[in-house]
């Protein structure tokens, strides 16, 4: 369904909306602040300022953004059998839509969620400029808590989150929140970087990365089953070579 988007929606440099907001934080690797929940800047940007409407157009110009925007969706498509006619996806901490770029042609619909209004506006303008129906792709500025009233009560076949877990104060809490939005039998795919000897120089809660046991524990605590963990590539991040992993777990059907 999204084949017409693949080259068009993310092909050009599009300026963000001119709306004014007071909350400008995000959770991608280019952001130095932390919040308990929500998302922002998923997809893997390099070092940079808080992303605002004046700077957000620079986000995808960072070398690591293009690399992760290519490698992570490919790993996710390998891990899960997306169906362009049936699969509904939430891209959590979606940023400007880097991960959606690789997943859109393989899904029925995608809902991006982020707490950074500048990134949400930037992503929304791309969607609008391509004339994509809201039932196929939309983006929401929200700090999800895991309640039935959020996102109009929608549940998803797959929830993806890339390069944002290391910004969350509690990965246990955020994993439980994301699990709430999965359909029974739905899948959570999380990509981030492995724990290394030298912490990545960011002012974030989990800047040293994660071990497999860290992520396994968060998934188990949320009740996710069938855990798998794959170190699928290496990348250069803040001057260091780091391993990227993809974790997968499934919500029980009972």
Beta-strand content estimate:
15-25%
The CATH topology is Rossmann fold
What's the total number of strands?
7
Q: Give the overall average pLDDT.
A: 81
Number of helices: 5
Main β-sheet, in a few words?
7 strands, mixed
Write down the domain tally: 1
CATH homologous superfamily identity: Vaccinia Virus protein VP39
- Give the CA-CA distance, first to last residue: 31 Å
Query: In CATH terms, what is the architecture?
Result: 3-Layer(aba) Sandwich
**What's the alpha carbon Rg, rounded to whole Å?**
16 Å
Question: Which structural class is indicated by helix and strand composition?
Answer: alpha/beta
Low-pLDDT ranges: 1-40, 43-49
Mind telling me the CATH class? Alpha Beta
Spatial order of the strands forming the largest sheet: 3-2-1-4-5-7-6
Shape category: globular
The percent of residues in helical segments reads 10-25%
N-to-C order of helices and strands: HEHEHEEHEHEE
Q: Summarize this, please?
A:
This is S-adenosyl-L-methionine-dependent methyltransferase. The chain is of the alpha/beta class and 254 residues long.
């Amino acid at each position: 369904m999204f084949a017409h988007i693949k080259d068009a929606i993310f092909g050009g440099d599009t300026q963000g909306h001119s709306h004014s907001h007071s909350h400008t934080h995000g959770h991608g690797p280019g952001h130095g602040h932390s919040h308990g929940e929500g998302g922002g800047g998923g997809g893997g940007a390099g070092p940079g300022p808080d992303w605002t409407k004046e700077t957000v157009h620079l986000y995808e110009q960072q070398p690591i953004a293009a690399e992760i925007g290519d490698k992570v969706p490919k790993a996710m498509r390998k891990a899960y059998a997306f169906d362009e006619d049936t699969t509904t996806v939430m891209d959590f901490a979606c940023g400007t839509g880097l991960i959606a770029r690789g997943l859109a042609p393989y899904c029925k619909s995608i809902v991006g969620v982020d707490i950074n209004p500048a990134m949400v506006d930037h992503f929304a303008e791309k969607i609008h400029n391509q004339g994509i129906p809201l039932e196929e792709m939309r983006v929401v500025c929200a700090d999800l808590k895991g309640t039935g009233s959020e996102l109009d009560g929608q549940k998803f076949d797959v929830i993806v989150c890339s390069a944002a877990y290391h910004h969350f104060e509690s990965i246990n809490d955020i994993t439980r929140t994301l699990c709430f939005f999965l359909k029974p039998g739905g899948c959570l795919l999380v990509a981030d970087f492995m724990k290394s000897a030298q912490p990545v120089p960011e002012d974030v809660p989990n800047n040293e990365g994660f071990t497999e046991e860290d992520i396994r524990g968060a998934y188990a605590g949320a009740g996710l089953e069938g855990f798998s963990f794959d170190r699928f590539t290496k990348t250069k991040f803040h001057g260091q070579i780091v391993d990227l992993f993809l974790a997968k777990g499934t919500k029980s059907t009972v």
